[in-house]
Each structure stands twice: as structure tokens, then as C-alpha cells.
Design brief:
The protein is built from 4 helices and no strands.
Length: 146
Amino acid sequence: MDSNKPQTKRHGLLQFLKFNIVGLLNTGIDMAVFFALTGLGVGYILAQTLSYACGMLNSYLWNRNWTFRQAGGSAGNHPKSERKQIVRFIVLNGATLLLSIGLLYVLVTRMGMPAGLGKIVATACTLVVNFAGSRLWVFHSQKPAA
């Protein structure tokens, strides 16, 4: 029996909790920008793209330096490793953005849902994809912080 399994599970749960705390902050930023832009008459697709980008920048900074931080530093201190991580983060979040736009389109245009409600539903649907991609691909090689 592997004695590190309970610790690994706890670490994974702690990362998920931290990811969700960061996600709440990202979502707050994303929603505030989205509703401000749509309130100013910007179309929901452009508003989604701009608001998501604001949340994405916040997400990278917090997840790199807190959620998936290495012991003794941030998540990936080597410049080459950091560039690879940034590229992966952008690819993952670009895919998540496209998924959220697709969901918004279906929910708002095809199903007649109000844009605000569609935004909330799309955000909830993309949470799991984003966490799994962040943990298993973007920040995967990181050791737990002490």
C-alpha cells in the first residue's frame, strides 16, 4: 500500500479548492467586465472574449504563484519551462474560451436564454475542463508547496 496516496489525494483536493477560490476571483473579474461591456452595448461574443481575457490573466498569475506553486518558489522557475507553461496555459484557455463561446451561442441564440444566464451556465460547464487541463497539462510537473 502506498503511504503517499492519502497525502496525494489531500494535495489534489487542496489544489482543487485553491483553483476554485482563484476561479471565483476570475469569475468576478470576468462577469464584471462582461456585464459592463454588454451594458455599454458591446455584443456578447466580443464582451465574452474581452472579459475572459481579463479573467485569464488573473488566473495565470494566481494559479502559477499559489495554486500550483512549487516548494520554494513559483510554478516553474526556469525560463524555458515558464515559456512552455505560458504557451500551454494560453492554448488551454483559448480552447476553454472557444468552448464557452460555443456554449453561449447555443444557449443564447438557439435556446433563447438571456446572455447573463447563458454566461453563468457556460462558465459552470467549462470549470471542470479548465481545472483538469491546468492540473494535468499546464502545471503538471509541479511538486507541492511546503
